[in-house]
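Lab notebook, page 48
Experiment: co-folding of the full assembly
Goal: obtain a model of how the components sit together before planning crosslinking
Operator: M.T.
Materials (sequences as entered):
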Amino acid sequence: MKFTRREILSIGGGAVLAAGIGLPSLPAHADAAEVDKMIKSFAGSAKVETGTVSLSTPEIAENGNTVPVSVSVESPMTKEDHVTAVMLLATGNPRPGLITFHFTPLSGEASATTRVRLAKTQDVVAVAKTSTGKVFMDKKTVKVTIGGCGG
Amino acid sequence: MARPRVKVPSTASKGEVITIKTLISHKMETGLRKDRKTGKVVPRQIINKFTVTFNGQTVFSTDIEPGVSANPYMQFSVKVPESGEFEFTWVDDNGETYKTKKKIEVKG
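Observation: model returned without errors.
Model output:
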C-alpha cells in the first residue's frame, strides 16, 4: 500500500502527540483510544499543553447521575485572544462525550458549570482551545459510589 | 414538557461580568437505558443544544451529549456592554425548541 506524504506526516504527527509532549497520560481503558481520537480531532494540528485550563470536580460523587463539573480558562477574552471552545470528556463512560462549551469575547470569562453523568470512577478531561490556536488540557479523577448511566 | 428557568441579575454596571444560571426540566434519555417492563431499549431523546443571545448576538452556546445529567443545568458568564435582552434557546432531539427571554438594565 502506498502512503501519500500527507498520510505519513499525519501518522508521524499523531505518534509525536501520543508520545506525550505536554499531553497528560490517559488511563489504560478500553475507551482510551476513542478519547484520544476525540481530543486530537478537537485540537487539530495544535500541540496539547497543560496548564491554563482548570477543571473542578468533586473528589467523590455520591450520585453518578448528577456530578457537578466546572471548568475555567485563564484568558483576556478579547477579540484578538479568547477561548473559543472547551470540550469535556468522561474517559470511563460508555460514550466519552459530555459537552462542548462555545465562548465568545462577550462571555467575559471562559468559565462554565454543568452537571454530568458518570458511569463509574474515572478521569474527566477538559480540553480548551483559543482563537490564537493554542490548546490546553486538564484532567481530574472522580470517585463514583453509585454509577449514573441508567443502571 | 420541558420547562426552562433562568436566573439573570436585573441590573448591572457597564462592562460587568455577570453570572447566569439556567435549568430546564428534561429527562435527557440517553438511549442506553432498557425499559424494565418491556426489556426494550428506550430511544435517545435529549436537549442537544443550548444557545444564549444578547440583543440578537450569540454570546454563549453548548453542544450537549447524553452524558449531561437530566434537567440540564448550565452556569456561565456574560460581560454586559449595554441594556438589552437575553434570549435562551434549548433544542430537543425531536426538533422542538424551548425559549425564554430576560431583560437586563445596564447603568453607567
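Interpretation: The CA atoms of residues 124 and 141 of chain A lie 6 Å apart.
Next step: discuss with group before ordering constructs.
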